[in-house]
Design a protein that fits this description.
flat; six-stranded mixed beta sheet; alpha+beta; three-stranded antiparallel beta sheet; 16 helices; about 45% helix
């Protein structure tokens, strides 16, 4: 457990050999990371009290998270998020959604690989990812950040992480305490050291002072913190992938509300009653108008809750008819129709803002349009570039999300003594988390690419270009796009199946020729035998004739 200004950090701390040399490097600004941590400095002499250098951003972060969650409940946004999450996290009851790939690490023994794979399965089990993977990924995507508290047995750290608990992103914040001093030579303020920790508050506090009494300081080693990797304009706040959709969704909501109001107010057809009141005084004319209105107005009212029709004259609505008095000398009592709103079926503006919203969510518009999706399925030629862009976006999300597994795996392996932190730093770029893929559009596209390559190869073979102007190896590398490993594998498999196709055809021809030669030899031998038999028969007949003559 590390101490900080007399206060112990909650959680465990991994022991490090020495401070890295870069911490001793002089600079006037702290190191910039993409974790969105707020920088604080000591505020007075009180222990555990720090002044926020970035202003009041703790409350802003909480408000941002709550705003993202509110936006995610909108039907169009929810549909897009579900589409993204379903593409990123797939799996079934029979197999896990993720697995660990260590094939790129050469200097790693098989025993350590086995232990790391077992610990990775343990991490997946502690997260309950096979069951809650969809919810965890959605929470991370919507909030733009996710926090996990790694629970250990402090009396037995070598037992590793015992439990992983999720923390609400609106209640915790990563903070970096900056220590500065003036350079005596230049007079500039130099950042000497930066210490990281987390502050957990049950309720969001306003103000720019963090106090140890209002929150709990947690050691960074006891936390797993992964962000979206997106920062705002001033590079100080973490934002979600939904941030750029805030404006389009508000515009779409206002347009939809205005459309509903317009249709309610203008859609029905109404009438205008011009009532002839003659020379009646104003008071009597008004009373006469009310009597006429009560006599001829619609008396039946439909109750939407019960489905009943009631006779209720008390209720007035904005959709009722107009009653206007007309003095003597006019055209008398008259009833005219007031046409309802026109062009109510034109919603091009709504469609425009919907497309704008879908574009901000990085989801192909074709997936949002049910008619286009139904036409695309089963037709690979209809797959456009948007699907490829969407798949690349999913791959980027998966790579960023993989830090959750890798961060917990790293700390668990270090605690159990399987590897050291130096080993992990040297291997981290070669450790890969593989996700189960279930993208029908990607499969169709791969099939289309393979079909185009095969057609190109057939065209070259029909023109007798292979073997004349292009070698087989060149065709395999540049037309079929096979690498060295694939070429060697194909050659081994072909040889194991009986050689190359041309060699097989040549061998078949040789077998046929050999059969013909054998048949010819057999025919010649049979002819020789027949001749010998005929000669024997003639000789026997001659001997019989001579015996008859002598007798």
């Amino acid at each position: 457990m590390a101490e900080n200004n007399g206060l112990k950090l909650f959680g465990f701390e991994l022991r490090r050999v020495k401070e890295k040399e870069e911490t001793k490097l002089k600079s006037i600004v702290p190191k910039v990371d993409d974790d969105g941590a707020g920088y604080v400095t000591a505020a007075g002499s009180h222990y555990g009290q720090y002044l926020n250098m970035d202003g009041d951003d703790s409350k802003d972060n909480t408000q941002l998270v709550m705003k993202y969650r509110g936006v995610s409940m909108h039907p169009e946004v929810d549909m897009a998020i579900e589409d993204i999450v379903n593409e990123a996290i797939t799996g079934s009851e029979m197999e896990s959604s993720v697995d660990l790939v260590l094939d790129k690490i050469d200097n790693l023994s098989d025993s350590i690989k086995k232990q790391m794979r077992e610990e990775f399965e343990n991490v997946v089990s502690m997260l309950n990812f096979n069951e809650l993977g969809h919810d965890i990924f959605r929470r991370w995507y919507v909030d733009g950040r996710i926090y996990f508290h790694l629970v250990v047995n402090e009396s037995n750290l070598k037992a590793g992480i015992q439990e992983v608990r999720n923390i609400d992103a609106a209640k915790i914040r990563k903070v970096k305490q900056v220590k500065k001093k003036k350079d005596p030579k230049t007079g500039a303020t130099i950042v000497t050291n930066t210490e990281e920790f987390f502050i957990y508050q049950e309720k969001a506090k306003s103000g720019n002072v963090y106090s140890h009494g209002s929150g709990v300081k947690i050691s960074p080693d006891a936390m797993c913190y992964v962000t979206s990797g997106l920062l705002n304009e001033d590079k100080k706040k973490i934002i979600s992938h939904l941030h750029k959709a805030l404006k389009p969704i508000n515009q779409l909501r206002m347009m939809e509300d205005s459309l509903v109001i317009y249709r309610l107010a203008r859609a029905p057809e109404r009438r205008i009653f011009y009532i002839d009141v003659g020379n009646l005084p104003r008071g009597k004319a008004e009373q006469y108008m009310k009597d006429i209105m009560a006599r001829y107005r619609n008396k039946l009212v439909y109750d939407a809750k019960t489905g009943e029709i009631k006779d209720d004259r008390k209720h007035m609505s904005m959709l009722e008819d107009f009653w206007l008095p007309r003095r003597e000398g006019g055209r008398g009592t008259e009833i005219t129709n007031l046409a309802g709103g026109e062009n109510l079926g034109q919603i091009e503006d709504i469609n425009y803002f919907q497309r704008k919203l879908f574009g901000s969510l990085n989801v192909p518009v074709s997936r949002m349009n049910e008619e286009q999706v139904s036409n695309i399925l089963g037709r690979a030629t209809e797959i456009n570039r948007d699907e490829l862009k969407f798949q690349k976006f999913i791959d980027r999300l998966r790579k960023r999300f993989s830090k959750i597994f890798l961060e917990i795996l790293k700390k668990n392996c270090i605690l159990k003594g399987i590897i050291t932190e130096e080993d992990w730093e040297s291997w981290k770029n070669d450790i890969v988390v593989n996700y189960v893929r279930d993208n029908y559009f990607a499969e169709l596209k791969n099939g289309e690419i393979l079909r185009e390559r095969v057609q190109t190869l057939e065209t070259m073979q029909n023109a007798n270009l292979v073997g004349t102007y292009f070698s087989k190896e060149w065709v395999m590398r540049n037309v079929l796009k096979l690498d060295d490993e694939d070429i060697q594998t194909m050659q081994k498999q072909i040889s194991g199946e009986g050689g190359e196709p041309e060699e097989q055809e040549e061998s078949k021809e040789e077998e046929v020729l050999q059969d013909i030669v054998v048949e010819n030899e057999v025919d010649e031998e049979s002819k020789i035998l027949e001749n010998k038999v005929k000669e024997k028969e003639l000789q026997v007949l001659e001997n019989v004739a001579q015996a008859l003559v002598t007798s």
